């Protein structure tokens, strides 16, 4: 009788201890969602790992290639969509931010687009197509990670 109670209690602890499924998208589902958008040529969504002396840090890495000749309004919409979808991706480690790279012709200044959306980001040196957005800034714009995927 006592053994049964311990087994039941242990089972309940396992159920309540974070073994529940996440509401976030898998990296493959996020990639598929971005690639379905009209104007997107290809996309990747992965976990970026930074190994440091005192540990390991994680970010979400979203890379998008847009079709040539899109208007700046379409480029802006797709930058917003790619960032929102990236932030809805569950990478199984709390990320410190999102790395976003969007390439196209004509080229898109991702930092400038995000500024227009009210999102602070750090541009990559000498590369207007790449930025790093902190988790704090992602949470403020798109909600706590993993955020709800755009519909």
Concise synopsis of the structure shown:
With 151 residues, this protein is of the alpha+beta class. Helices cover 36% and strands 28% of the residues.
Written account of the structure:
This protein is α+β, with helices and mostly antiparallel strands. It has a single domain (23-142), classed as GMP Synthetase, Chain A, domain 3, CATH 3.30.300. Helix content is 36%, strand content 28%. It contains five helices and five strands; from the N terminus they run ααββαβαββα. It has helices spanning 2-16, 27-35, 72-87, 110-116, 135-142, and strands at residues 40-52, 55-66, 97-103, 122-124, 127-134. Strands 1-2-3-5-4 form a five-stranded mixed beta sheet. A hairpin with a 2-residue loop joins strand 4 (122-124) and strand 5 (127-134). The termini are far apart.
* CATH-defined fold name: GMP Synthetase, Chain A, domain 3
Oligomer: single chain
Helix-strand makeup class: alpha+beta
Largest sheet: 5 strands, mixed
- Proper CATH architecture: 2-Layer Sandwich
As a percent range, the share of helical residues equals: 25-40%
Q: Please tally the helical runs, counting DSSP H or I stretches of 4 or more residues.
A: 5
One letter per element, helices H and strands E, the order comes to HHEEHEHEEH
User: What is the first-to-last residue Cα distance?
Assistant: 50 Å
The total number of structural domains is 1
Share of β-strand residues:
25-35%
In the CATH scheme, the class would be Alpha Beta
**Mean pLDDT, as a whole number?**
88
Q: List the strand order in the largest sheet.
A: 1-2-3-5-4
